[in-house]
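Protocol step 4 of 6: record predicted structures for both targets in the notebook before any analysis. Target 1:
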Amino acid sequence: MSINLKSLISVFKAEWIGSDTDIFVDHISIDSRSLQNGSQTLFFALSGVNNDAHLYIPELIEKGVQNFVVQYIPENCSGKANFLVVKNSLDALQEFASYYRDLFDFPIIGLTGSNGKTIVKEWLNFLLSPDYNIIRSPKSYNSQVGVPLSVIAINEKHNLGIFEAGISTVNEMVNLEKIIKPTIGVLTNIGSAHDEGFQNLEQKINEKLLLFKKSKVIIYQKNEIVDLCLNDFLKTNDLKDRKIFSWSFTDNSADVFILKKENKNDITIIQYKYKGESFSLEIPFSDLASIENAVSCLLVLLYFEYDFATIQNRMQMLYPVRMRLEVKNGINNSSIIDDSYSSDFQSLKIALDFLESQKKKNATKTIILSDIVQSGFSNEELYTKVAQLIADNKVNRIIAIGGTISSFAAKFPNCITFPNTAEFIAQIDSLNFNNETILIKGARSFQFEQIVSLLEEKTHETVLEINMDSISHNLNYYKSKLADDVKIMVMVKAFGYGNGGLEIAKLLEHHKVDYLGVAFADEGISLKNGGIKLPIMVLNPESTSFPSIIQYELEPEIYSIKGLNAFLKIAREKNLKDFPIHIKLDTGMHRLGFEEHNLSELIETLKGNSSVKVKSVLSHLATSDEVKHFDFVLSQINLFDKLSSKLISALDINPIRHILNTSGISNFPNAQFNMVRLGIGLYGVSNDPAEQKYLENVGTLKSIISQVRTIPNGDSVGYGRRFMAEKETRIATIPIGYADGISRLWGNQVGFVIIKNQKAPIVGSVCMDMLMVDVSNIDCKDGDSVIIFGESPTVVEMAEALKTIPYEIMTSISQRVKRVFFR
């Protein structure tokens, strides 16, 4: 892509402010943190509720970016770069993508629905790629921003596009349709996702159908409601000549009627009728969702007029789709970013940005990369671009696996090559992986999962999966509740509420939050050693930790005269000046803090003292989540305002003031002061059921079945024989117990786990390292996945059953349980 800026002035209806319009750009960016930004970048400064990219333009100019699409020119930036000034920069990005899409004329498959979009897209890419040079949405780039970024990646070598479109409310699809302009429309499963954004199911279906206004064919599963909506859509838009290609399990009037589906050992044989003839195909899945997704793919192949032998041959090779980047602990103090099932140019850009955001402090950045498929470029052009991309991202070591990429090794600095994965594995011990952040990215045929397994630190089979996208979503949800000038401190104490402190802190730093909060100095030191540069406040510092706090530039909360004097003594000894401290006021929690009668002594101690600077004044709400105590909360807020104002006036200072926690942010918006402290809400838990539906689950605790056995009537299970079988019973043993953080009170049929989407009650006592469940009604086997908590049961449900709070459930998960972070 190389676009002349002059041509975009009319596209955006923009005001040009710059030196020369005869400039070409070949890279579009919306992320100021990307190392891929450079002189040929056109940066769209998006401005939303939670962030304003205009704020980062000065530092982008310093890094060499010269071309910007903006809503306003930041102060002191005029004359330093070229600006296309528009009313709305997101609209401009979408208009550019629409303009760019019109430069190409080849079939485009547009996918929408509630579930299955990304899987169908990836499977269609696999099924059609032997015959087409395909451009597709990377990962799940299906939003108002993701779709234009996907389409902008088209180049002149592509001859088929597959793009997905996701919406969460009305009036969104019309924008995406103008960008994708699909010639072939595929409607996947319609479910409950994003129901809150629509009045009813019909409105949601009608909105999704708008993607297909210009499609030559619409492929979908027949359904009474969808049929009614589709008929109205065709009639309203005068599209009576549009080809409709349908399938069904139950309606034999469909173009493709599924006569029978038979499961055999995780394989499904599908018998279907098409054009009066019966056919059969086999897919390597048995769950209903995969069967539905596979049939959607079948109809696309039939529409493309593939012969039945080719259809059968390719569809029996379908595979599980990995839709995320995972961060795992590796051997020898390394970190692994697992992207071992895809290797295309667009997703490489995404993975390299993620590598930069997750790199360990002072660690070597390494990439293990296979041959790249479906780029649309010649090999010479492709690997020149890849080499430049890797150089821009300052990758220290490149390990290239595959005959094609190896032949271009001279383009890469510090590059080691191997002809195939087996040769690499044979020599893996000689490569000395140590203190590295390793991106493992390979085409599926290279089987890089073997490399991940060898480099991954061997630990517990039980894992806590942390969804980094959900953390970002929850952060932005609470940010949207804040006034523009209110700062945000995020609490990452107690190992990030059990989720993992350093990795989450890196993400929060990426999002440019204002402060991090920890309970003790060692937590803050660990974050600083991990490379975190954000200011970190220590809420419960012990006087013995003051020297370390100073050494690592942490910021202590001071809550007593004794503690203040102890810190001042050390500060004077070290000749400190204006070292930041935070003054805690007790307004009714009666845990820690200066009370009103201490204020005069506090003021006298601080007056004229140049060793420290009061960075903030804070207090802690005792009951911000209980309506019956709201009057008490208001009295705390009023007392805080009174005491902090007195302190500020007496010392003639201008500190940050903060009192609101997660519940306080939602329930007391008028008390935001200068900053709020976000805690458990970041991790997807709210005390308000009405608010809970807007948050996304962050942590999913998973394990596997170690063994399944059948016991006869009258036999017992576990210590104390607390479960006695009243009939022949199938029992599954799972390797997780109270040493991992599962309360013994959750045993004896109080709690349950999820296996194959079904509840399996816990029977007998929870052991130290194991628990047992009844799987009599579940078709499962050794090695099958088990969900301990996540979407179901939630930590809120567990807490209610155990008469405790979600905090205790989350923070109890042992650190011997491996954390896996993914996007």
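Target 2:
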Amino acid sequence: MAAIAIVIVSHSKQLALGVRELAAQMVQGQIPIAVAAGIEDPENPLGTDPIQVYEAIASVFSDDGVLVLMDLGSALLSAEMAIEFLPEAQQQKVHLCEAPLVEGAIAAVVAAAAGMDIHQVMAEARGALLAKATQLGLVSSPLSVVTPTTTNIEAPTAEIRLIVSNRLGLHARPAAQFVATGARFQSQILVRNLTRNTELVRGDSINQVTTLGVRQGHELVITATGSDADEALAALQALFANNFGEAARSCCSNKEGLPNPEGEDNVALNSPPAFQHQVTPATHGELSGIAASGGVAIAPVVHYQPTHITITEYHVDEPESEWQRVQAAIHTAKEEIQAVFSQASLQIGDAEAAIFDAQLLFLEDPVLLEAAKERILENYINAEAAWQAVVDEVATSYRTLEDSYLQERVDDVVDVGQRVLRLLAGNAPANLYLEKPAILVATDLTPSDTARLDPTKVLGICTTSGSATSHSAIIARTLGIPAVLGVDAQVLHLADGTLMALDGESGKAWVEPESHILDLLAAKQEAWQTAQQEARATAHQPAITRDGRQVSIFANIGSISDVQVAVASGAEGVGLLRTEFLYLDRTSAPTEEEQLAVYQAIAKVLDYRPLIIRTLDVGGDKPLPYLRVGFPEANPFLGWRGIRFCLDHLDLFKTQLRAILRASVGHKIKIMLPMIATVMEVRAAKVILGEVQAELNQAGISFDAAMKVGIMVEVPSAVAIADQLAAEVDFFSIGTNDLSQYIMASDRTNPRVANLVDALHPAVLRMVQQTIQAAHAAGISVGLCGELAADTLATPILLGLGLDELSVNPQSIPGVKQAIARLTIVESEAIVASALQQDSAVHVRELISTSVTPPA
């Protein structure tokens, strides 16, 4: 394999680090990537430095070649100058490339990891904007069904037929997973919905896959033609067998009795059942609509009208330039959507934010791109007209579907289509900032619009179109913004500042409501707020089973902001502080003082609740860019990571230990060592800890000399020698995420085998039981901090196994505590006894579902 290196030169350090992180994730750190970005000027940090570029090139230099990607302006000049500093023999190995920075970097690392030479890597980078369309070598009629005309007829073709079992079929997220999985293979994937008697469509087009209208119970035929046809179909079949990861999602209806189309959990901000009633019969100024998001809002109205973009089609003399404009607009749109996704993840969680993953795939759809390109190049028309025509054609294909839910996905198509059109037209994004709290009145809101809303300013939403199952409604519910949709268009003629009241539960709104309406709504709002306070109070109570057993519920966190959410959610401490966030997205390791300040700040928020700090767990699949491994690891999950990495970087390890020890004064802090596989690793780490303690004593620096030390149990060898390890430490914490994949010998990031990685498999449960028994025999406590802890279906298993504590993401704490309160230890132990005798995770889940009895 070629050891080609990549150098990213940018005016912005943040941009360059983000590009490097994205590119590195594509190849799991196999390709060395260096960054030369920004200048050392706090007031004006944007710029490039030739010396910095030279040092970056030298740090990753390879005789196989170094590819340098630049953003603009002086970046090129700095790169050219930097090459002159290199020895003449090395200069010939360094290649400056004009490819787009983000896509070029991704294409380049993928090509380099595939073993291509430097010229091939450069070609891939240059063609990055069309990578999805050209890499598979597929040609098709725009936006139409296809036949496999471009595949070698001698290539092997395989076929599978299956029945779709996940509850809502191939809606946006499963369709996105289907397309992403198929794209990993060279074979051409085609799919047909036999139930609806559709034609074959391309499996690499999210729009064509989605518009098949695949629902639960439908029969599909999927064909793959190419050298890896069997492997491609096996990976796709695994997706369906695992219900696209939706197996554990609730199938219940939401508070309004409507289906949850994306499998979203109901948010706590919906009104509790006790307050579901009509406020009053129809009165003066009353508008009826669709109940889309529960809650009451009373505020002045503010109108929102997105900028209308008028498109005129005209003849162009240089169609290639128009196609380049489309590519540039799509590139910028992707960056904007990624920013929306990142912000939405923080506000509404990863599950709901995944809506925007589908929008990104829309912009990568090769059928869509081919159609736009063909319209421009063959008809010599401008970019705006061609793009609008293609988007309209896709939107129409959604609207003509029989399935009402899939019809509503047209909102997402229009949303992303308008974003690109706005960029082509040079328009600024619409302003959704409100100076004062108000109810937003509009014709409609796109998912992107809704995700940008500030719930402290937008107290309610009232639109003349939309539905309760649209993505915009889903986001509004998650944000806790009351919404009434589909009201009469007269609301659009109200003057800004007009007082409005709306009840998102009953689907009614009132213009200039009378005093008795306001009184009724205020009472309902107060009752709702009281219910919310009671729910929060319950979350802050201990988790105790019906027969009196208490289990500690801690939080897994990865930042200071996380700990504040954890405490507000009822966490009794932090069971896992992932310290990696301190080390990533920077060019050097954090100092002792930087770490000390963060650890102290987190401990202060916890107010003497326990804080378990896991020492640095990077290396292997999570490399630190400023600490080079020196060679790519063939299997990073079995490589140089966790405690192995720290024991080979003593300065880094000691600095972190010093910071943790210093922060321990006056706080209840514990140290936890990751990826322990042997007793010698624990002993070596304890020796180093002792050396640091001695150094602090000698310097007269205080620390908690009785601070407890524990380990993560996430390697099968640690389970096998758990009795020996228990004699060395004060506590265990079981990491079921890694433990499951190691026990099942299956990479959880590999779609071909990811379905095997299930922590409820009896093999994993037996390992967990063995660990707990060894810990308790030695008199030490044992917790569990993997994702399994947050799965309330698994709660009776974890109780029955005898765990002392569970550590989960902050948002899951109330639900886990409620699940524990509904169970008894006796029934949980009985379930475990039977679960350990099952032959699959599927049967374990079925056992739990049929065994748990509701509380009396």
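Step 5 preliminary note on target 2. The CA atoms of residues 211 and 397 lie 7 Å apart. The two ends are 64 Å apart (CA to CA).
Proceed to step 6 after PI sign-off.
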